[in-house]
Amino acid sequence: MRLFMTMEKHDYEQVVVCQDNASGLKAIIAIHDTTLGPALGGTRMWMYDSEEAAFEDALRLAKGMTYKNAAAGLNLGGGKTVIIGDPRKDKNEEMFRAFGRYIQGLNGRYITAEDVGTTVEDMDIIHDETDFVTGISPAFGSSGNPSPVTAYGVYVGMKAAAKEAFGSDELAGKTIAVQGVGNVSYHLCKHLYEEGATLIVTDIHKESIDRAVNDFNAKAVEPDNIFDVECDIFSPCALGAVINDDTINRLKAKVVAGAANNQLKGNEHGEMLHEKGIVYTPDYVINAGGVINVADELYGYNRDRAMKKVEGVYENIEQVIDISKRDRIPTYLAADRLAEERIEKMKNSRKQFLRNGYHILSRRSQ
Predict the structure, then answer these.
(1) I need a labelling partner for 26 at 20 to 30 A (CA). Which of 81, 152, 291, 312 fits?
(2) Annotated catalytic residue: which of 80, 91, 159, 163?
């Protein structure tokens, strides 16, 4: 790939390539934008088909974090790391210690956290070398398991979408189809059940379905049938690209709101939802509770304060819907605009400050 051309096209700030022979570390740190603050984004460990694929993933994910953090109202930019390797067999302490030293060398421009293929234990090892890491063990003052907090953010975001679709954010009496009942969506189902919603669930793992049926009186369906059920809200909480040419025409819901990443197979599917009058909550806005939670660790973690910030997902979804109406665009584009407008306002503010500062210095020099 033509790295500098790609960086220039999407305005990336920095890419750091890290290697350590002794441990086998091969990592790429991508920093997309630090207009709002230092770049925050997790470390993913994956067996990539090629070095080019690893670079592309790091760049794509870093830009995604810029938008996610900006839309969440955080004073943080976007960055991401990918480590090339099999997380099941290639990990070792020396690898994460070496990686921690690279992060320390960036002097706070980049702050990491766990992601696919990495764990809290890995973050603890990184923490031995740098303070610029979140999602570490509670013993070090961290927030612990982020799943319940992410789920709460999805829950309040769903309520905001319901208000737009049904005129009220009350979910009692609503039928909600939940695709995937993993760590995050189990806690989401708990909130929905306690409010009085009726749940229809599916999952590829029978034990996950059984738990939801037993704990929340949910009705279970086969995985492919979840798109056809009569429901008010469809909540994708498993794989990406589940909103596509086939499934859109099968949906009975008035709202699509869930925890899964990359729910739209393509931008055209966001257009299709908009044309059908289905309220879609862009995934990186509604599932931002986890990053909002770990970001609070940077101030000395306080759970009450963090949860209060996560409640802001409700207002963020409202803002996306307002922009969608204002500009007559689908919500997936409105989410991007929300993030871009916030970044642009900060850039303009800084330019104005620098101009004013120059004028003051000029007058003093006369």
Answers:
(1) 291
(2) 80
Residue 190 is among the residues annotated as catalytic for this protein: no
Beta strands in 64-139 (DSSP E): 77-84, 110-111
Work out the burial of residue 179: count CB atoms within 10 Å of its CB; fewer than 13 is exposed, 13-18 middle, 19 or more buried: buried
Per-residue pLDDT tens digits for 24-47: 999 999 999 999 999 999 999 999
Residue 25: enclosing H or E segment and its boundaries?
strand 25-33
Residue 246's CB is within 10 A of a number of other CB atoms, namely 11
How far is CA 285 from its chain centroid?
7
How far is residue 233 from each of residues 178, 201, 229, 274, measured CA to CA in Å? Answer: 9, 12, 10, 15
Distances in Å between the Cα of 40 and the Cα atoms of 57, 64, 292, 333 are 16, 11, 11, 23
Helix (H, G, I), strand (E, B) or coil at 178: strand
- pLDDT confidence bin for 6, thresholds 50/70/90: confident
- Compute the 3-state secondary structure of the chain and give helix, strand, coil in percent, each to the nearest 5: 50, 15, 35
Nearest to 134 by CA among 119, 148, 121, 123: 123
